[in-house]
């Protein structure tokens, strides 16, 4: 009986440790996010890098998707860190969303010189665009102070969870963006029509008010104590 109890407690403990480690590992992923990234627009993407090791993180290298070229990318300054934007020539020039011919594209961005201490995280903002219509996968390398490199390069598959998933920027659906803009436009038009109608009604009231006042003044009230006239019937 005691052995069964011991085995049961052991299984529960192993499961609890696995859940904790699994959640901790998920928390330790390098991720990327943006506020409502819409295809065809520019956005500020933020790469969040936590440190789950006992040594500090000293370098981050983010590779841009080669099949979705970006002509330029602007980095925001991060205290203590130096950013290097690396570009490469395209084998075949492509036309951007703005009609510009692109012969070079951003290959990667590397941040180094600073430290992410154990148990902390740092965010690296990047302005980029115009955004394509498909989600963006940014394969990343996280380097620690002891020389260890964690490769966040696994492409996520539907229904599965990779050990080292690459950061993915999910874009807003084109139909949703178009529908939302259409609804906003309709709301503006209806609001404008309502404002014009209200202004017209107010103007009509202002125009009619003086005439109504004059009409009221021309009708004299009956004298106090006056008796109404009564017609006398004629005798036949």
Please name the defining characteristics of this protein.
alpha+beta; 2 domains; 11 strands; 236 residues; four-stranded antiparallel beta sheet
Question: How does this model look, in words?
Answer:
There is one protein chain. The chain is α+β, with helices and mostly antiparallel strands. The chain folds into 2 domains: 2-172, Sandwich (Immunoglobulin-like), CATH 2.60.40.2230; 173-219. Helices cover 30% and strands 31% of the residues. The strands form 3 sheets. The chain has a 5-stranded antiparallel beta sheet, with no helix packed on it. A 4-stranded antiparallel beta sheet has the order 1-2-7-4, with no helix packed on it. Strand 5 and strand 6 form a beta hairpin. The longest helix is centred in the C-terminal third of the chain and has 45 residues, at 174-218. The chain is globular. The termini are far apart. 16% of the residues are buried.
